[in-house]
Amino acid sequence: MMKSVGLVLLLIATFAYSSVEGKPRKCGSSVENAIFENQDLKDALSACKSDPKGSAALAALALTATCRGYNFKVARGDKCDEVVAPYMKCVAGKLGYLKADGSIDGAKILAQYRSYAVARGSICRNEYDFGARHCGTSISNYAFLGRAECLITAMYQYPG
Fold it and tell me: Considering the entire predicted model, what is its pTM?
């Protein structure tokens, strides 16, 4: 009888521990929602469709064969990022992400993204910092949404 009770307790402890260890991380999804479900971002994306330079950039993007199906969440580092840059510059401007000279303020953007993770606690901060080390801190051609997606993807891969 004692052996079976001990075995049951051991099995319960094993299952309880494994469910904690295998618990999915929520940090990446909460940071993703804070960035991509942000109403200010949605409003800026919509408003810049009417901006002359933004509209021209989107039209050029649609006419460029290699850019069909372009995903704003993926910084490709190619001609498509360059074609859409005026539109994304408009979006960045509406969000307050531009410096006085018109260049993108990557430090400001990444600090805002990090604040979303830090607000969730030290585990999320560590996941974000891991993502930042993996993805780097430079943002080219105003592709800040691509940098966000890279950070979020890396957060899900955090080994700690």
Answer: 0.79
